[in-house]
Design goal:
5 strands; single chain; alpha/beta; flat; 5 helices
């Protein structure tokens, strides 16, 4: 008798699981179906009339914009110097500014950043009012305020913000960055990109 009861409970649990999985899978199936229909529509209708647009074929914007690269840095003395020199080399004379957020009690990182910022106009050092470490958001808020001051000082608005980590290898993101700079020539308002 107890085995019959347990078998019935087992059957009900399996039935519940099957129904729940079927309902949960329906929304995934609908999304996949919408994607496939849209893809087919674009292939048959849109691309038969218009050439496919890529970042390489975008026309230049009549209002090109400057990009801001935010780099929060806490105890990054070992990697920040080579990364910034490499970034400045790879990204060349594009219209960008690198804003590096640092802390007053991180002397090793500041000792690397200060001479670099003094001789490079594209690099802006943003020192937090509080000793570190704080949250990354706090550091990015300091960098954001420095970007707003730079816009006010130069009269040139930033069109996009890219978030970059000090540990990231620049060559990995260089192509993505160059493509994004090309996209910025379209004329859209402020956009964000994580490199």
């Amino acid at each position: 008798m107890i085995f019959a009861y347990l078998a019935r409970v087992h059957h009900e649990i399996l039935l519940f699981a099957v129904v729940a999985l079927a309902i949960g899978g329906m929304d995934d199936f609908i999304i996949d179906l919408v994607f496939l229909c849209r893809r087919l529509w674009r292939k048959l209708i849109v691309y038969s009339r218009h050439r496919r647009m890529t970042t390489l074929t975008l026309p230049a914007s009549p209002q090109p914009g400057r990009i801001a690269i935010f780099i929060p840095a806490w105890q990054e003395a070992d990697v920040i110097g080579p990364m910034l020199r490499n970034a400045l080399n790879h990204w060349g004379d594009q219209d960008y500014r690198i804003f590096v957020g640092a802390y007053p009690n991180d002397r090793a990182t500041l000792d690397i950043l200060t001479p670099l910022a003094a001789r490079e106009t594209r690099l802006i050092l943003c020192i937090n009012e509080r000793n570190g470490p704080t949250t990354k958001a706090d550091c990015l808020n300091v960098v954001w305020r420095a970007m707003l001051r730079e816009e006010e000082r130069t009269g040139v608005p930033f069109k996009a913000i890219a978030l970059h980590d000090a540990e990231q290898v620049v060559t990995v993101v260089t192509q993505k960055f160059r493509s994004f700079l090309r996209v910025l020539r379209i004329g859209h308002p402020l956009q964000a990109l994580t490199l």
